[in-house]
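Summary of Year 1 activities. Much of the first year was spent building the evaluation harness for sequence design. The harness presents a backbone, in tokenized form, and records the residue chosen at every position. We chose the following record to illustrate the format because it has been used consistently in internal testing since the harness was completed.
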């Protein structure tokens, strides 16, 4: 509704000035407002148009993702015992094989039951869990016990080969009640380079650690020396008198003449001098034990718990002989070895809350005064907290412990309890009461190491022990199983494979706390519900084993998942399929055309009456279209001696810029050379030598062919010197940045082909346009900024028009007042003339 401005000012003259003012203001506003509004609307449309292009690239990238790595190679299987899939398309090739699955890999499953509830206390102490290979030795009865003969058994299979294999393993013997275990050590001597080979100096190395102690440790051990190809072995029945005696023994060993180095005596070391000039690989030196059956017997007889066995152990012929102390028939003993998995670190898990008391030295021992220490924390609050807890005190060698069923009345009661603990007499100190502290007085005047004192809380529940085990880094899983309303069990399952059997050594603190119920240091059929096992497979007549049912290293680039055993051979294979390749290529070309059509629609110029696109003439959008066209026609290097083009596979560019795919040409090209199809879908690194394999990561590399040379351990790829990691070499800069090479069998100079697929090239480019602060987002930001400028111009126009309106109101008010005044004068003159005329008539 229009406002009558003059009426509002009470100066109305009867004229319609409101409409007149509005018309004048709008006539002045309209041209400028139209220009601003049109510009704003154009930029709004531009933003939507750029957004559609960006969405097109996003859809393009998503559509290409499933195509990544497709080579046209398809894995197949006839049967139902396994699944097979291509896991690495860069190395997978066509093949056909017969496979038989004799047995599946299995996870060991241990069950410890007898707990009345999930909250039952399990005990306190530590679980030392190791993973490894547990194997049983053969135990046979040789002589029955009778009134005149004790029973004799033998453990067979300990010939020279088996004895050598015991290095680093633990052998366990049991009579069914008591168990004894002994671990046979194996170690490596340190090999160091002392002089690098050059034109005039041969390379010299030393094997250190052969001082007096090292020589003494060689008794019963076997020493192996190797140059990487040849090796010699010598077993020392007794410790060699000196280094010269060692050299003499090794020089006489079989195979010494084949070694690439000569052995002489150095200082606390063997000196190895290579016969050839030039740098040579470091030698290896390994010691192993035991040397013979007698050494095995000695080790077992010295093991803790041997005296508790009901039989004695002696050496037989390729066997241990077990002689029972009592007459009569007895159950056969059990014997097994446990070989810790070198790839797994043994973990110690503490069960029960454990905290240390503060131990401090109060008086240092001297000639006349014994050393005195105190253990603080036995004030009234500390005494109260001892209820249900265990206190352990150790001098570093001996220890005592006492569990307080209730809180002790005072410090004297604590002292009395500890003095009555088993082992108190073996401690090197006496315990008396101090002030809020235990006082330890050492028996000798000499300075002593500080004692240790630990307070251990009540046993953790079954569920808490489960959580402790699951929190470890071991590849095992613990769970609580309800077997009945009054019987709960802790089940522990390892990963698949014979080398992942569990060994659980328990240390109870305090003794008899109940934690020993989780011990598993020897086979127990009541606890082991499933034994660990490797998968046994036969492929084309070749028997192999694997520690998992997911097999990734049997056939290059293939993952085989074993599901069940077979009764007859089944066929697995992979073959190139032109239909698969064509379908992938067709989808690739369709998505390129869709993206191009999207850009064309937004940037087309209006010709022959057609409407122009919102971004017509925009140079940056035109650049996107040109880049897309260039990608589809460019050379693809790095997949062989010659570059590859889309045109090789029947792709043509039409006059309107779209791509077409000739199915017949494409399939013919693929069938003729399926490997070259990788250039379209599958980035990879290949080499001209079977001794050199490669891979690439990141996107900083430049595709192409590069010469690889390996000279004196220094690898060069193109113009880049590679970083050496043993048998691996990596490029961290230059055109080959991100390329890694693995060398086997000494390696060889060759050509390395680094290929980036056309698909990956497209994906990288699309990814950059979708990344933060990308080119398209910057364009949208510019358009938004221009829209803000247009909004500011409209606001300024509105302000200016308000001022113009005000001026018109003022002017028309003055005019209206003048007209009104003239009307008043006219009225007065009319009245006067009317009066004068009337007077004349009179």
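For this record, the design step produced the sequence shown next.
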């Amino acid at each position: 509704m229009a406002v009558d401005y003059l009426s509002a000012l009470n100066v109305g003259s009867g004229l319609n000035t409101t409409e007149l003012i509005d018309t004048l203001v709008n006539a002045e506003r309209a041209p400028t407002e139209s220009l601003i509004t049109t510009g704003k609307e154009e930029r709004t449309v531009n933003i939507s148009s750029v957004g559609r292009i960006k969405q097109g690239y996003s859809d393009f990238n998503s559509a290409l993702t499933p195509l990544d790595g497709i080579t046209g190679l398809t894995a197949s299987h006839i049967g139902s015992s396994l699944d097979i899939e291509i896991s690495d398309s860069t190395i997978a090739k066509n093949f056909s094989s017969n496979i038989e699955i004799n047995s599946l890999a299995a996870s060991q499953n241990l069950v410890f039951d007898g707990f009345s509830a999930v909250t039952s206390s399990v005990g306190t102490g530590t679980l030392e869990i190791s993973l490894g290979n547990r194997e049983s030795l053969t135990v046979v009865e040789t002589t029955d016990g009778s009134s005149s003969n004790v029973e004799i058994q033998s453990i067979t299979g300990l010939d020279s080969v088996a004895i050598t294999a015991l290095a680093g393993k633990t052998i366990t013997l049991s009579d069914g009640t008591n168990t004894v275990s002994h671990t046979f050590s194996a170690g490596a001597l340190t090999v160091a380079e002392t002089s690098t080979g050059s034109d005039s100096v041969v390379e010299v190395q030393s094997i250190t650690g052969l001082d007096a102690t090292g020589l003494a440790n060689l008794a019963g051990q076997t020493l192996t020396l190797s140059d990487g190809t040849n090796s010699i072995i010598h077993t020392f029945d007794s410790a060699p008198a000196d280094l010269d005696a060692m050299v003499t023994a090794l020089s006489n060993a079989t195979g010494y003449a084949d070694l690439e180095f000569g052995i002489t005596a150095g200082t606390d070391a063997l000196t190895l001098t290579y016969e050839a000039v030039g740098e040579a690989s470091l030698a290896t030196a390994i010691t192993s034990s035991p040397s013979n059956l007698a050494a095995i017997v000695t080790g077992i007889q010295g093991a803790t718990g041997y005296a508790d066995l009901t039989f004695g152990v002696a050496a037989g012929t390729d066997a241990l002989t077990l002689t029972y102390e009592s007459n009569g028939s007895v159950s056969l003993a059990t014997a097994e070895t446990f070989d810790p998995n070198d790839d797994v670190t043994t973990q110690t898990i503490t069960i029960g809350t454990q905290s240390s008391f503060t131990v401090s030295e109060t008086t240092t021992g001297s000639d006349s005064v014994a050393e005195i220490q105190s253990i603080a924390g036995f004030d009234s609050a500390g005494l109260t907290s001892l209820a249900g807890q265990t206190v352990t005190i150790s001098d570093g060698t001996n220890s005592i412990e006492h569990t307080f069923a209730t809180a002790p009345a005072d410090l004297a009661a604590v002292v009395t309890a500890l003095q009555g603990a088993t082992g108190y007499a073996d401690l090197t100190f006496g315990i008396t009461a101090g002030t809020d502290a235990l006082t330890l007085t050492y028996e000798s005047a000499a300075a002593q190491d500080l004692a240790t004192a630990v307070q251990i809380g009540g046993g953790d529940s079954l569920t808490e022990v489960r959580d402790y085990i699951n929190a470890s880094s071991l590849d095992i899983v613990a769970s609580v199983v309800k077997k009945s309303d009054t019987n709960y069990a802790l089940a522990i399952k390892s990963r698949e494979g014979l080398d992942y059997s569990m060994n659980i050594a328990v240390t109870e603190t305090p003794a008899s706390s109940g934690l020993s119920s989780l011990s598993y240091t020897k086979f127990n059929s009541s606890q082991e519900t499933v034994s660990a096992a490797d998968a046994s497979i036969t492929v084309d007549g070749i028997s192999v084993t694997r520690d998992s049912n997911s097999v990734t290293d049997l056939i290059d680039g293939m993952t085989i998942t074993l599901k069940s055993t077979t009764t007859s051979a089944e066929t697995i294979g992979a073959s190139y399929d032109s239909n698969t390749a064509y379908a992938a290529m067709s989808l690739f070309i369709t998505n390129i055309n869709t993206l191009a059509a999207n850009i064309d629609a937004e940037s087309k110029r209006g010709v022959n009456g057609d409407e122009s696109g919102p971004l017509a003439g925009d140079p940056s959008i035109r650049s996107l279209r040109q880049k897309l066209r260039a990608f589809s026609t460019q050379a693809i290097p790095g997949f062989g001696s010659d570059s590859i083009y889309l045109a090789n596979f029947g792709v043509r560019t039409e006059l309107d810029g779209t791509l077409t795919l000739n199915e017949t040409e494409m399939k013919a090209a693929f069938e003729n050379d399926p490997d070259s199809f990788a250039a379209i879908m599958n980035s990879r690194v290949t080499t001209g030598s079977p001794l050199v394999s490669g891979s690439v990561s990141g996107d900083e590399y430049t595709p192409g062919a590069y010469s690889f040379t390996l000279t004196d351990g220094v690898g060069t790829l193109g113009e880049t010197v590679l970083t050496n990691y043993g048998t691996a070499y990596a490029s961290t800069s230059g055109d080959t940045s991100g390329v890694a090479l693995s060398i086997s069998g000494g390696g060889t100079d060759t050509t390395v082909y680094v290929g980036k697929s056309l698909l990956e090239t497209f994906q990288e480019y699309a990814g950059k346009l979708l990344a933060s602060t990308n080119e398209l987002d910057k364009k949208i930001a510019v358009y938004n900024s221009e829209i803000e400028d247009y909004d500011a111009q409209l606001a300024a126009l509105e302000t200016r028009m308000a001022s113009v309106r005000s001026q018109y109101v003022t002017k028309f008010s003055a005019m209206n007042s003048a007209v009104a005044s003239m009307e008043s004068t006219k009225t007065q003159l009319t009245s006067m003339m009317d009066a004068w005329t009337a007077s004349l008539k009179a």
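Residues 201 and 277 are 6 Å apart (CA to CA). Quantitative recovery figures across the full test set are reported in Table 2.
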